[in-house]
Specification:
Blueprint lengths: L1 H9 L4 H10 L10 E4 L9 H5 L4 E4 L7 H6 L6 H4 L5 H6 L1 H7 L1 H15 L6 H26 L8 H20 L3 H20 L9
Helix pairs in contact: 7-9, 8-9, 9-10, 9-11, 10-11
């Protein structure tokens, strides 16, 4: 699937790695044939002629692992559906949990920044802390979950601009919701929009969208 395409594009799933793993596990002693089935989206990183020099023949299978059984049943022939790369809502949201786990350091930093924003420790400390936390912390969640969901509908082609656009919308809405002043609202936009844009750019490495 998409993760194979991403790994192949970055070189972590490529010819050298494939040959190295074949030799490491002594695959020639495990099976009697000399054919390797590689996912179709692994083609950018795997050179069949180079792999053949090691004594193995590469055959490109379907895009999705779920199609392997039908592909084998059809005599290793792919129909149009097996070749098609889909990136619908379910595919886009599948990577959201990964982004959330990677965003924990950023969320901790935002929590610290929120506490600093709430200073001094007066009666309004909690309100100021929560205001910043809602805008900035919410921006991270918007980037992780709303961005992939809205990806086809956001303007611009570059993910950085898509993310920045979404960040501006969120921070502006959050500023209005918490009743911040114009100056504070502008500051939140300048802080939150880059955060959302930064997280959004991570998706350029895990999608066939661009």
């Amino acid at each position: 699937g998409i993760n194979v395409w991403c790994a192949a594009g970055k070189g972590t799933f490529g010819t050298a790695e494939l040959v190295r793993r074949i030799e490491a596990v002594r695959l020639d002693r495990v099976v009697t044939h000399r054919t390797l089935v590689v996912p179709q989206l692994g083609a950018p990183g795997v050179s069949a002629p180079e792999v053949k020099k090691s004594g193995w023949t590469v055959k490109y299978g379907p895009v999705r692992a779920s199609d392997i059984r039908p592909w084998l049943a059809a005599g290793q022939k792919k129909d149009g559906a097996m070749r098609k790369v889909r990136f619908d809502l379910a595919d886009r949201m599948a990577v959201a949990p990964v982004e959330l786990t990677q965003a924990w350091p950023l969320l901790i930093g935002i929590l610290i920044a929120s506490a600093l924003h709430g200073l001094p420790l007066t009666a309004g400390f909690t309100a100021r802390l929560l205001q910043f936390l809602l805008a900035a912390g919410g921006g991270v969640l918007v980037a992780v979950f709303a961005f992939p969901a809205l990806l086809p509908y956001l303007p611009f082609r570059a993910f950085a601009l898509k993310g920045a656009f979404l960040g501006v919308l969120w921070s502006a809405a959050a500023s209005i919701a918490i009743g911040s002043s114009l100056a504070v609202g502008a500051g939140l936009v300048l802080i939150v929009a880059p955060i959302v844009a930064f997280i959004a750019m991570n998706f350029t490495g895990c999608t066939p969208y661009t």
